[in-house]
Design goal:
about 90 residues, mainly alpha, 2 helices
Length: about 90
Amino acid sequence: MQGQKTKFNEDDGRTIVNMDVEGTPWHDRNVNFADRQAQELGVKQKRAMYGERMTNSEARRYTFYAMLAGLALTGIMAATWILLVLFMTQVWFK
């Protein structure tokens, strides 16, 4: 019993920490290259699915017009409340 190694059946094959760190003797550059190619392929597929991203100027323009629409709606609601209060104090409650 003392000479036998204990066998654990709990290993599920998942990697907890990737020990393939650049600068170590066992570092494999081909693995990182394959990962990079897979990532680029994923980006290309995502672009094909969702389309191209907006440029910075387009994003600023859309943000500006969204803020302008929100401010316009807020102004309309504020004007409605002000007119309602004026109507109630000047006409209705007299």
